[in-house]
Amino acid sequence: MNNSGFNGTPESAVPFTGDSSLRHVKPVWICGLLVLILPVLCLAQDGGENSVIQNGGFESSTVGQFWQVGPREVKQNFSMNLDRSDAKEGQQSLVFEAGEPINLTLRQEVFLPVGSLWRLTGWTKSHISATTAKGDTGPRIGIDSRVGTQGFSQSSGNSGGWQQQSFLFRVPPPGRITIALNLFNQQNGKVWVDDIRLEPVAEADGAEAVTITDERLSNRPIDPKQGGQFIEPLCDVIPSMTAQQVQSTSFEEETPWAYPYKEAVDKPYRPWYPDGSVHDAEYSFDTNNPFNGKRSQRIKLPVANTWAGISQDGFYLEGGHSYRLRLHMRGEGNPLVRASLHGEGTVVAGPASLGRGSSEWQGSEVVFTPKRTMRNATLTIEFRGPGTLWLDRVYLIDTDAVLGLWRPDVVKALQSSKPYIVRFGGSTIETFEWTDTIGNSDKRAPFSDDPWGGLQDNFVGPEETVQLIKHVGAEPLISVRWTGRGPQDAANEVEYFNGSAETKWGRLRAENGHPAPYNVKYWEVGNEVGGTPEYDASVTAFAEAMLRVDPSIKILSSDPSPNIVRIAGPVLDYLTPHQYSVGDLNGTEGELKQLRDFIQQDGKGKDIRVAVTEWNASAGDWGLGRGMLHTLGNALICSRYRNMMHRYADLVEIANISNFSRSFAGGQIQPGPGYLYKIPSYSTQILYQRAAGSYPLHVNRSSPLAFYLREPDLDATLSQDGKTLRIYGVNSTAHEHKVNFSLPRSWGSVQSAEEFVIGDSHAEPDSEAMNLPDDPNRISTQTRRLPVSGSNFEYGFKPFSITLLEVHLAGK
User: Fold this and answer.
1) How many Cβ atoms sit within 10 Å of the Cβ of residue 744?
2) Could you tell me the pTM of the whole model?
């Protein structure tokens, strides 16, 4: 995961307040002092009668009051003063001076109604040093948000005199935006700013006239792989998908998670704890001769005919289901070992004998069938003294688990999303050893989940993930490690998955229980390690080694640089950006156009396409801000991005939304003990997969706004047989938008039509609404037939909604 581009007010933004003694910002101690002063947030008025910007004219006697600079930028050498001799309005302006090249942006955060249209204006003047002047010389004004930059005005150039800058934007969910005054861009000199204003822009009343043409926007149909999913070893993503319920299966020391959402509950606290005659027993972790990992649990009980052991709470048990408990043990004194599941004042399964502990490690298991459902059961493993017992690699798994491992409801949700391609990758790929994740899972040691913190219990590696992907009828995409590895390491992994049983690595796969090759077609070289000369120079060698093993595979790059096609184009099939600011629809489209240019300029006619192997509205918004990924507003943003990808069907073949399951508020699905619910963007993925195989069409609109400002955001596709028209409409505003549609008469009459609407089921729709365990269907898809006929019809797109109109035509 990454988050590229200019993005949002930093959480620790430094406000400029105080008297003139702080005007020359250089000493580090001043930065520390300023961090202690909280920034002021401003609440917009719906009527727009009062200014929504605080101190937009810089008339306050306090220099730069209500404005902030990022904590890194504030450490640079520059001065900020009030200039009473040169103001565009009022009595004074704000002037910045830098004696050396710096990057500096002044920011103020405000809240505005989601979906409303606004104009930002301001006056700037600059004297930029000729030695640092370049194409984008001079200040710019713009809007940033948590879901991506909303754009900037054109640079005013080295103006010398006051110039007004203006910028039109629409407020993205959740309505939290940042006024950004970009003063210096690795430049030095002097810049003045004054009269920064926000004004609401009135929009036309009545229905917009929209003509859908039969002109195709692409030669290729929309690929179903645009609806791909993404699974990575990131904290709780994979554990939440499996039917294995024990926490700390190998008693390893675990580092805290490095990133939070709701830090107190991100990782449920379910420790093993002493139980039974604990006053008679001695508990320790033993690093001498563990069965799995670096240590085992040791319990010494010298008292005869009494029982002691360990317990763990938090198990969800369904009455009538069977659960397999498996553990590994050894002992001194031939101790008798048993296990039970209990809670709420009763035993629901067991006690069941696990045999006796001998001097050597041995596996033991028992199948429990609970008498009734219990949401918070306790597992107890204990033995009778006297003696000593060592325990290691303990797990409890539902016998109904798909492929012996995966939760059935998770598998059903993955299959229902019809992803067609699922990627196994992520940041951890660049630190872990894939060879440690194959073979008997009892013996696989947990591995550090770098850089995220914690441990992965190592029941799931790329092989189990490929088995799941194949099971749901999708294509796997595997990222191979690049960091610290060479071409032969990547070739070995390809051979393990795709080589015959006669090859070295294929033979090992067969010994591990899978003689037939997996025939994994898509292989990505590294995860977020591209864009450097070192990486670009290595790709050809990696690809050639992998292709020697299996010439049929497709090679994907990591983050593409401007040089990657020129250097490695002959071996590349896909350029692979990660797009985590898709709320910046204009900027995101610009990146796609740039990649298209790389291919056209240096590809020498080779059919290289784009695979966006990770994307979402945000990736780096850590803390409570991550909650926006759960909202209807996030689904609106993601749907607009899907509309745009349709229009680039010739270029974008693969796109994997991040992530599939629960991770720091991410995850299209949210599995928990005894429940699973989906976030709103999961429903949109299903809706957009209906267009797979169709062709995007040109849509003529009467709205004069740029495409990324129009409401609703519209997209139209036509099936290959010409009989199914799909119109996708995303209304990101709080008001209904009516559209008069005109269809080509050559398509014939409308036979029938249906609407599929994803929106808030509450009477007053809220862009911040989300599904919850106790309200899992607040945001869901509602379907009904529409009374549509002829080649013209009107439709009203509901507030904060994603709509698919599926129109069945007679055909030519």
Assistant:
1) 17
2) 0.91
